[in-house]
Amino acid sequence: MAYDLEEQEQLAAMQAFWNKYGNMLMVVLIIAAGSYAGYTWMKRAEKVNAAEASSLYTQIQSAASAKDNAKVQRIAGDVRTKYAKSAYAAMTSLTAAKSAFDANDLKGAKAHLQWVVENGNDEYKSIAKLRLAGVLLDEKAYDEGLKLLATPFLPHFAGPVADRKGDILVAQNKIAEARGAYLAALAAMDAKHPGRALVQIKLEAIGGTVPETKAAA
């Protein structure tokens, strides 16, 4: 059946459009198809990497429980090398820092914690800085520890940070300042905070007075 005039005009217009833009459209379609394939591959790779990193995290926890520091350090290195951008890298580094500290390897513990400070998210950075200040306290690097505690932390770390500051000030025999730090720690901790009782003991041990808590209305 012959096309009527209107159909012939539409066909001619389509042919002219394709002749003018056909090659460009093919390129765009090829790029789009390639981008989608790349995105799909990336998502699949992310799932595989997350599963592998999770498995390694389980292994490092088992090794830490078994006090196998050598294995802990090896796994932490593998995770940081292969999955540095994942949350598991920070998590394994914190575990490795604790294992190194327990093995009296303060240098190794500091290296792991510093890596988290430089590469972790805000939550892990705050945890790492707090623990690093504790290592510096053990090394008698008091000024360095106080300087670290003066850097930004997430708000809910205010109590533990003040507590750690008090510990360093006690070690420096700055008792009046230490009392102030412990009082600040108590003020930042609610009644159910697990560290509150210890802060109270430390405050009383240096002659401070624990403030009365207000009864709930």
Automatic annotation (TrEMBL):
Q: How does it sit in the membrane?
A: Single-pass membrane protein
What InterPro entries has UniProt attached to this entry?
Answer: SecYEG/CpoB_TPR (IPR018704), YfgM (IPR026039)
Ranges that cross the membrane: 21-39
Q: Which segments constitute the Ancillary SecYEG translocon subunit/Cell division coordinator CpoB TPR domain? A: 16-207
Does the record carry Transferase as a key word? no
Alphabetized, the UniProt keywords read:
Cell membrane, Chaperone, Membrane, Transmembrane, Transmembrane helix
Q: What PANTHER family does this protein map onto? A: ANCILLARY SECYEG TRANSLOCON SUBUNIT (PTHR38035:SF1), UPF0070 PROTEIN YFGM (PTHR38035)
Q: Give the protein name, as stated in the record.
A: Tetratricopeptide repeat protein
Q: Which organism is it from?
A: Massilia violaceinigra
